[in-house]
């Protein structure tokens, strides 16, 4: 289809969109007068599924009615409540249900994963992250280096993951690299990396690999199991629409599940379920990703994630990706039509190398442009020093939202 820059054309795309009815399953934020914003910030905080309230209310009611008995007698008993999320989460990251667990938040999980998978020696101790890695990841890996007695100045490599540059890095530094931590889809540029290829190359040099999937989960189809990565972590408040500070998740490849030699920080919720309440002296880990759990989770925080995961299962990642490719291509087309002078798209052009989000690089006056957009009711976000990030999300955004963005930015 040849795109056109007109409201009628955008509407015609909405009318033929098989996922259009999902928009109504979410609360879309409005200004004080009740006018809906053009919400293009699902990469930052997803909007609220209407069913989240129903599911949270059910748990509040069960708590009121049952107190402690709810652990076993709630309509969805609380002790195994997180298990309700395993299948849906596994399908979102492309893993087996036994390889994923919903718990904690992203940076906490990253540290827990590094306890097990960052095992430096005096010769092999460096950690590689991408050049524009999210600062929290940088703080986390730098502190792990320091924790193990290494100077982050020499031990932390911030590098390009472009094919040639990465090959060269492995050639030169491969023997000294212990861990590669890669943002699967970079938060600042929107680039989606070839995860399997990178992992294969790294493993060939005996470096372990973990992914930060904060911007990838629920955005692009993933096959984390097949990529052979050692671990992955993510949050669920972005594309997964599970609310501010919602619980994150972890993937641990099944080949590591029964490796008793791996160190880990342990807690009772990771203990074998049969003997957990016997409070034995010796910790006996569950032989799945669940074995990395520490504490019993907040049921009220898990309930919105359940609501959202159910919607994802209904819509299906394949259909969502198809719509997402079209939405983002339409956004790209309209940005071209708007003729924004110095403002350029930073995100790769190739659809397979990006997700929903396009990042606009504005060398001059970027912040002012962002503020003007906000005044016109467009909610996207600003990343210092030069980037406006815009994400049309296929579950609830329509092509007409993208058109409204175009009118505003023009
Ligand atoms: C790529 C990335 N990594 C890590 C984080 C930190 O997440 P949390 O506060 O859940 O630890 C974020 C938060 O937005 C993020 O975008």
Concise synopsis of the structure shown:
By secondary structure, the chain is an alpha/beta fold.
Q: What labels would you give this structure?
A:
410 residues, alpha/beta, four-stranded antiparallel beta sheet, 37% helix, globular, binds pyridoxal-5'-phosphate
How is this structure best described in words?
Helix content is 37%, strand content 13%. The chain has helices at 7-15, 50-66, 70-73, 86-93, 106-117, 135-147, 152-155, 163-173, 195-204, 224-227, 299-315, 317-338, 366-375, 399-409; strands spanning 26-27, 38-39, 48-49, 100-102, 126-130, 156-159, 177-183, 208-212, 231-234, 249-252, 344-345, 358-361, 378-379, 381-383, 387-390. The strands form four sheets. A seven-stranded mixed beta sheet has the order 4-10-9-8-7-5-6, with helices on both faces. β7, α9 (195-204) and β8 (208-212) form a beta-alpha-beta unit. α1 runs antiparallel to α14 (399-409), α2 runs antiparallel to α11 and α12 (317-338) packs parallel to α14 (399-409). It is globular. The model has no long low-confidence stretch (mean pLDDT 97). Pyridoxal-5'-phosphate binds at residues 105-107, 134, 136-137, 183, 187, 212, 214-215, 235, 248.
């Amino acid at each position: 289809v040849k795109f056109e820059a007109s409201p009628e054309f955008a509407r015609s795309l909405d009318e033929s969109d098989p996922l259009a009815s999902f928009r109504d399953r979410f609360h879309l934020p409005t200004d004080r007068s009740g006018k809906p914003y053009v919400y293009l910030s699902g990469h930052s905080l997803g909007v609220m599924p209407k069913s989240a309230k129903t599911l949270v209310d059910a748990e509040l009611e069960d708590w009121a009615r049952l107190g402690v008995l709810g652990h076993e007698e709630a309509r969805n008993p609380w002790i195994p409540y997180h298990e309700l999320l395993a299948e849906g989460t596994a399908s979102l990251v492309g893993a087996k249900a036994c390889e994923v667990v919903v718990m904690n938040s992203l940076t906490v999980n990253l540290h827990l994963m590094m306890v097990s998978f960052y095992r430096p020696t005096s010769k092999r101790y460096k950690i590689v992250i991408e050049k524009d890695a999210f600062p929290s990841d940088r703080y986390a890996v730098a502190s792990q280096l320091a924790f193990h007695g290494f100077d982050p100045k020499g031990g932390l490599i911030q590098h390009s993951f472009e094919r040639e540059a990465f090959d060269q890095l492995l050639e030169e530094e491969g023997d000294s690299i212990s861990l590669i931590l890669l943002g699967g889809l970079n938060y600042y540029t929107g680039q989606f990396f070839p995860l399997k290829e990178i992992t294969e190359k790294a493993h060939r040099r005996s470096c372990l690999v973990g992914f930060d999937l904060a911007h990838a989960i629920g955005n692009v189809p993933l096959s984390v199991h097949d990529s052979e990565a050692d671990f992955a972590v993510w949050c669920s408040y972005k594309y997964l629409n599970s609310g501010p500070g919602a619980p994150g998740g972890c993937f641990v490849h099944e080949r590591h599940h029964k490796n008793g030699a791996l160190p880990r920080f342990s807690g009772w919720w990771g203990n074998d379920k049969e003997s957990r309440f016997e409070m034995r002296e010796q910790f006996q880990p569950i032989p799945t990703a669940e074995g990395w759990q520490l504490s019993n989770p907040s049921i009220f925080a898990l309930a919105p994630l359940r609501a959202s995961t159910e919607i994802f299962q209904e819509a299906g990642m394949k259909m969502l990706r198809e719509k997402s490719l079209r939405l983002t291509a339409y956004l790209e087309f309209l940005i071209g039509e708007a003729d924004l002078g110095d403002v350029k798209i930073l995100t790769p052009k190739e659809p397979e190398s990006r997700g929903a989000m396009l990042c606009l690089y504005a060398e001059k006056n970027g912040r002012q442009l962002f503020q003007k957009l906000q005044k016109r009711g467009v909610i996207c976000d600003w990343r210092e020093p030069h980037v406006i990030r815009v994400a049309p999300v296929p579950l609830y955004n329509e092509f007409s939202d993208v058109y409204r963005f175009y009118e505003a930015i023009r």
